[in-house]
Amino acid sequence: MNEMVTIPREEYDRLRAAAEDLADLQTYDRAKAALAAGEDELIPADYVNRLLNGENALRVYRDLRGMTQAALAEKAGVNRVTVAEIETGRKQGSIATLRALSEALGVTLDDLAE
């Protein structure tokens, strides 16, 4: 049996706004918890803007981590020339190579995908 309740529109709008506020607070709490647990990180606006402006994600994350191409290549177990070619767009890189690079940078494979 469906029960029906009638309330004034003003009360309905107030309840909807309160529900949206609660959802926003819950999202905020989840984000803060993920940061505190080390599951997520804050990225400075300069780096985000570089990504949004279409700069190669591998280069941006490598710069964010303060790594040279050689250091990243060594940590990922790939050739430095491969890193340079991916950063300049001459090569896309295999899934295995991108996975190794993403793990070395501490980002997801999706973070490097364009």
TrEMBL record:
Keywords: DNA-binding. Gene3D superfamilies: lambda repressor-like DNA-binding domains. InterPro entries: Cro/C1-type_HTH, Lambda_DNA-bd_dom_sf, TransReg_Diox_bact_type. Residues 58-112 form the HTH cro/C1-type domain. This is HTH cro/C1-type domain-containing protein.
